[in-house]
Amino acid sequence: MIPIYLFTYNCGKQPIDSQTFITGCVKDLPDEVCELYVFALQEMCGIMDGCFYDTANHYAIGYSDAFIRALSAKYNGANLRFKTVGLVHVGAMAMVVISPFASKISRVRTATVSYGIGFSSLKGGVGVRLAYKLSDTRSVDISFGGAHLPAHEGNDHYTFRNKVSVAVMRGLDFGDGYGLLKPDSHTFFLGDLNYRTTEKFNPHSPEMQSLWRLQDQSAQQSEAEIPTLVSRYDELTRAMARGEAFMGFAEAPIDFRPTYKYETHTAIYKRTRAPSWCDRVLYQSCYPQTQPQVHRYAAVSHILLSDHRPVSLHISIPDTAPDAIVSAGGFQLVIEPTGGGVEVVGPTEVYMKPTGWDRLVNSALRRLSDASLGWGLWFLTTSRGRLWLLGIVVLALGYNWLFP
């Protein structure tokens, strides 16, 4: 078995408070050393900073350093050297993969995909695929996708989220002919998936009262209600049960409180939003024999820096990859439940390999959109930008006056 720790966090565009953040991470890390530590970030910086690669890279490296420091502090007596083996970011999204056994990791590939407004990187995903060495003669691929899916309540937004989740998995181009889904690879999908608990927010509705009661940290009765509330109200749970999203994936049982939306720096839910389990970690589940072992799936309730709570999954996966849920031709396969689990029974019409359109969007169109958005915000929201804009206007008026 391969023990892995996965962590997803929407940072809420808040500046990193290194020591507070590191302390919170140390408390959540498992006592047992894992082979891989995977951290997915959303909104690690503001929109403007995310539009400029070098600026966003500074934030991503800062978080990578914080994760290394947290791991080193947690396993101080284990004589281990943690190393970042994969780092990728686009916009304000990033993924950091760290291992204390870097010599076991090879063939690291990264990918990014954008599905924000105007093809910008406001929404989309990042990915890391690597080969993990099992022995001198054998290795297995493991693929990680981190995403920030579209927000908002309502059936139209729910349907759009499902559509974008497929587009993100398809559009993550690792350069090996496949998107996130690849035969003979373990696969994880995590991030701020933005699935909600209501179609229309009504603060007086029974579901809102039930969800807001979970805010009482001392109420054991409310905590016991969580699985029932998840099955009753959570969009993603219902979508996966109906086969409308993430076919071939599974999620550990949720027994933690909704991870969104909090008043920043507090454990108090914002009264203008429905508390929702937006932050999730999913894993491919079509294993023919030995099944993954979930050790812990939890919200990191002591990191209060954002309006989200981080979510972590400690899991051990078999050495053997699961059955493929995408064909060699790139079409997603049908997954049906059986008495002992699930069975792959045939192809669908859903194409899951990167297309020429995906490559165009993630090269030229995204760069153009991000540059326009970034420079537009710089001119309008920063002191230097407004001075430059004023200067340009003065020069234009002067030129028009001198040369009518």
Indicate the topology.
Elements: E1 2-10, H1 18-28, E2 36-42, H2 47-50, H3 53-74, E3 83-90, E4 93-99, E5 105-114, E6 124-135, E7 138-148, H4 155-171, E8 185-192, H5 206-213, H6 220-224, H7 226-233, H8 235-241, E9 249-250, E10 279-284, E11 293-299, E12 311-317, E13 331-338, E14 341-351, H9 356-381, H10 383-402
Parallel strand pairs: 1-2, 7-8
Antiparallel strand pairs: 1-12, 2-4, 3-4, 5-6, 6-7, 8-10, 9-10, 11-12, 13-14
Helix pairs in contact: 1-3, 9-10
Summarize the biggest pleated sheet.
6 strands, mixed
The CATH topology annotation reads as Deoxyribonuclease I, Chain A
| Largest sheet: spatial strand order | 3-4-2-1-12-11
Top CATH class: Alpha Beta
Q: At CATH's second level, what is the architecture?
A: 4-Layer Sandwich
Shape: globular
How far apart are the termini? Answer: 77 Å
Quick take:
This protein is an alpha+beta fold and 404 residues long. Helix content is 32%, strand content 28%.
Structure, explained:
Helix content is 32%, strand content 28%. The strands form three sheets. A six-stranded mixed sheet has the order 3-4-2-1-12-11, with helices on one face. The protein has one domain (2-402): 4-Layer Sandwich (Deoxyribonuclease I, Chain A), CATH 3.60.10.10. The relative contact order is 0.15. The longest helix is centred in the last third of the chain and has 26 residues, at 356-381. The chain starts with a strand and ends with a helix. With 404 residues, the protein is of the alpha+beta class. The protein is built from ten helices and 14 strands. This is Inositol polyphosphate-related phosphatase domain-containing protein. The chain crosses the membrane at residues 387-403. Keywords: Membrane, Transmembrane, Transmembrane helix. GO terms for molecular function: phosphatidylinositol-4,5-bisphosphate 5-phosphatase activity. It comes from Diutina rugosa (Yeast).
